[in-house]
Amino acid sequence: MIRIGICGYGNLGKGVEAACLLSEDIELVGIFTRRDPNGLKSEKNIAIYSINDLSEFENEIDVLILCGGSATDLPKQTKEYVKQFNVVDSFDTHADIFKHYQAVQENAMKFHKVAVISTGWDPGLFSLNRILMESVLPQGMEYTFWGKGVSQGHSDAIRRIPGVLDARQYTIPKEKALEAVRSGNNPNLSVRDKHLRECYVVLEETADPKLVEETIKNMPNYFADYDTYVHFISLEELNAKHKGIPHGGFVIRTGKTSEGVHHKLEFNLELDSNPEFTGSVLVAYARACYRLALEKNYGCKTVFDIAPKYLSIKNYEDLLKHTL
Predict the structure, then answer these.
(1) Quick one: which of 63, 76, 107, 109 could link to 286 by a disulfide (CB 3.0–4.6 Å)?
(2) What is the C-alpha to C-alpha distance for residues 278 and 310, in angstroms, rounded to an integer?
(3) Is pLDDT above 90 for 44?
């Protein structure tokens, strides 16, 4: 059994919990939170501990899955917790992944641990499809579209703004751009051409709406490069109309192998629950993390480094006989 710890019990932490309980090779040791654990209850009666007690479980957890946000949590947590644990995270600020990798790699090698970073569906499964498609069709154009759906990372970034009580952020593909790509026209598109971002924000009573809106629209790596629309609503409306967390998207590559011979590759996801699906990906890569640690293949890894066989609960013989 692979002994898993969950660090953080928001939407993603609950998604990881659900995925762990569906995996027969996983033992969920406990959930660790910055909140008062006495005020929380696991939906599946898993033990909840203070994050301050985490170091006491160093010999009881094989892989620690970090479920914090990319804006402020993971840049600090991953490089610190890898000193004691093999870790998996879903760091998704694409522009900062290499810097994050470097910081985590240094400690992972120093302390003989495995860290799998930036896994989920993008970065993660979409990243794998991008590299596969480009390798197969080197003469072509690749496009990634996200949504329509709720981005957990962007919603979390808004919630970190002073004066914001709660928020949901929808990433929405622009239909005109999507149609142009699927038609094979190979358009040159900026990030602003491809998507818009729609934000539904609940403010604290003393918050300045104008200041909050300006902060959102000018946030680098999140909103500054997009057409962004901010709507201020009540908490009741947010809970009534924006409680779900659906998401999805597409990776599309068009290319040719000889003159007049054209191809289109497309990978798409339609997700009822972004955190539950992301949690399932994290658990699969936690399995790989554990196996790499057994092989003493230490260091910081991404989806580019990990063979698919490490993700599966099946043994290699079964994969060769029934899956290949």
Answers:
(1) 63
(2) 18
(3) no
Amino acid (one-letter) located at 220 = P
Diameter of the chain measured on Cα atoms: 67
For residue 318, the SS3 value is helix
Asked whether 296 and 275 are in contact (CB, 8 A), the reply is no
Phi-psi region of 147 (alpha: psi -120 to 50; beta: other; left: phi over 0): left
35 in Cβ contact with 74 (< 8 Å): no
- Distance between CA 146 and CA 142 in Å, rounded? 14
Taking only the tens place, the pLDDT of each residue in 150-197 is 987 899 899 999 999 999 999 999 999 999 999 888 899 999 999 999
Sequence-distant (6+) residues with CB within 8 A of 220 are none
299 close to 105: Cβ distance less than 8 angstroms: yes
Residue 78 contacts residue 100 (beta carbons within 8 Å): yes
Q: What is the per-residue pLDDT for 71? A: 84
Q: Which of 36, 92, 30 is nearest to 60 (CA)?
A: 30
Provide the phi-psi class of 184: left if phi over 0, else alpha when psi is between -120 and 50, else beta: left
Distance CA 255, CA 268 (A): 18
For 43, half-sphere exposure in the C-beta direction (CA atoms, 13 angstrom radius) is: 12
Residues ≥6 apart with Cβ < 8 Å to 18: 44, 276, 279
How far, in Å, CA of 150 to CA of 304, rounded?
26
